[in-house]
Design a protein that fits this description.
The protein has helices at residues 17-33, 42-56, 61-70, 72-82, 93-107, 124-135, 151-159, 167-176, 234-247; strands at 113-118, 142-148, 161-163, 187-190, 193-196, 204-208, 220-225, 248-256, 271-275, 280-283. It is α/β, with parallel strands linked by helices and 284 residues long. It folds into two domains: 17-82, no CATH class; 93-283, Vaccinia Virus protein VP39 (Rossmann fold). Strands 6-2-1-7-8-10-9 form a seven-stranded mixed beta sheet. Strands 3-5-4 form a three-stranded antiparallel beta sheet. Helix 1 runs parallel beside helix 3 (61-70) and helix 5 packs across helix 8. The longest helix is centred in the first third of the chain and has 17 residues, at 17-33.
Length: 284
């Protein structure tokens, strides 16, 4: 029988070498350490892996994988670079103004309530929530859960220490959010750093939680999971939304990022839109 030949004009490889090596790296991380990045969007993971390669002076993801599998300390060093996080207090001030005007009046009807900040990163969102609740006289009624997959980020969030040069942006966001006083009342500054008032975290619990692999976390009247889902593919978005929907109390509020939505998910019928622009939804 004649040998089969590949038509070079029509045959296309499944992925580039970089893409294949990236997937091997992510699978190795998943199997060795339990962090699953395999369903993050290709573009976002390409950027993250390329940034790690540049910083560590490795040439290919396979070279990186060899070191990752052999040295846990090395993996711990690069993990924050693979995880995607943002760092602004009151990010999208109009969203926090919406919380103040639409959600706070509902929370005031409860003797106690729970808020979950899912994917809290280094804690800017949690401190923003705590300040908002303090100004509305609700902080002592609240239990805040702040979760993230990255233990290093959680430690930073607990410490509440941020670069002072971020405060110009944070202050502008706070004003846009309808802040009732001056943001600098909530922190002290020295040596180019600011330290948030620890009293703001008096009712906050920090905990590791992974939307990729873990399950329903807690019943909450307000859940914020902003600018996390955009890095997931559709299957992983649906999985995360199932956890968020399962953790939301009846009539509770869910806040997503401005480019995220429940609209095309299997859970769309479980929510009504409060504000389409700022992606605030309410469970029904």
């Amino acid at each position: 029988m004649p040998a089969h030949k590949l038509d070079s004009a029509t045959f296309q490889p499944f992925e580039t070498d970089f893409g294949i090596e990236r997937e091997l790296l992510l699978q190795g991380i998943r199997l060795k350490y339990g962090y699953d990045f395999t369903n993050y969007t290709e573009s976002s993971m390409n950027r993250q892996v390329e940034a790690v390669l540049k910083k560590t002076n490795f040439k290919t993801p396979l070279e990186l994988l060899d070191r990752v599998l052999k040295q846990r300390t090395f993996f711990d060093q690069i993990l924050p670079q693979l995880l995607i996080s943002t760092s602004e207090m009151f990010r999208d001030g109009a969203f926090f103004r919406l919380l103040r005007n639409q959600v706070i009046p509902v929370l005031k009807t409860f003797p106690t309530f729970t808020i979950w900040s899912a994917g809290c990163g280094t804690g800017e969102e949690v401190y923003s929530l705590a300040i908002l609740l303090e100004e509305e006289g609700l902080l002592d009624r609240a239990t805040l859960f702040a979760t993230d997959v990255n233990p290093k980020s959680l430690r930073s969030a607990k410490d509440g220490i941020f670069p002072a040069d971020q405060m110009k942006v944070n202050t502008r966001n706070y004003v846009e959010a309808g802040g009732l006083t001056a943001l600098n009342r909530y922190y002290s500054s020295d040596y180019g750093l600011i330290k948030m008032n620890k009293e703001l975290m008096r009712n906050t619990v920090f905990s590791e939680h992974n939307l990729v692999t873990d399950h329903v976390f807690a019943e909450a009247q307000l859940i914020l999971c902003r600018n996390v889902l955009i890095y997931f593919n559709r299957a992983l978005q649906d999985r995360a939304l199932s956890i968020l929907a399962g953790s939301l109390a009846r009539g509770g509020f869910l806040g997503l990022g401005s480019h995220e939505s429940v609209r095309y998910s299997p859970f769309a019928s479980r929510f009504e839109v409060v504000d389409e622009k700022w992606r605030l939804f309410r469970g029904n």
